[in-house]
Amino acid sequence: MEEDIQLLDQFAGHALQALIAKSPFFDRNGELGKKIEKDELADFKKELAKTAYNYAEWMLVERGEAIEWLKNSPKYKN
Q1: Which of 16, 26, 37, 47 suits a disulfide with 52, CB 3.0-4.6 Å?
Q2: Neighbouring C-beta atoms of residue 55, cutoff 10 Å
Q3: Are the beta carbons of 48 and 19 closer than 8 angstroms?
Q4: pLDDT of the chain, 78 residues: tens digit per residue
Q5: How far apart, in Å, are the Cα atoms of 9 and each of 16, 44, 47, 60?
Q6: Beta bridge mates, 35
Q7: How far apart are the first and last CA of the chain?
Q8: β-pair partners for 26
Q9: CA 22 to CA 37: how far, in whole Å?
Q10: What value does the CA radius of gyration of the chain take, rounded to a whole number of Å?
Q11: Could you tell me what percentage of the chain is helix, strand and coil, using 3-state DSSP and rounding each to the nearest 5?
Q12: CA distance 24 to 19
């Protein structure tokens, strides 16, 4: 269980990096990007983090299916 949580966090971190890289730049002062209110910015960040964990959850699902496939594949059986 602990390993799954650590892996989930690791996957979410990688997903978050990609999501941030593709996100519009928001700025509370409107100097560098699109002006946005403090509450809107907090909501945006929260949704971004939620999306990253959603991607991470699906990566764990796929990882589990890939491991099962490998266990049952004659090519990879020991």
Answers
A1: 16
A2: 15
A3: yes
A4: 788 899 999 999 999 999 999 998 888 787 788 888 989 999 999 999 999 999 999 999 999 999 999 999 888 765
A5: 10, 20, 16, 11
A6: 27
A7: 26
A8: 34
A9: 20
A10: 18
A11: 70, 5, 25
A12: 10
CA 31-35-36 angle, 5° bins? 140
Residue corresponding to tokens 């269980």: 1
- State both tokens at 48: 């971004």
Strands (E), the chain: 26-27, 34-35
Amino acid at site 41: L
User: What DSSP state is assigned to residue 57?
Assistant: H
The two tokens of residue 3 are 């390993």
Token pair 């560098």 is found at 32
CA–CA dist 74, 1 (Å, integer): 28
**Contact 41/26 with Cβ under 8 angstroms?**
yes
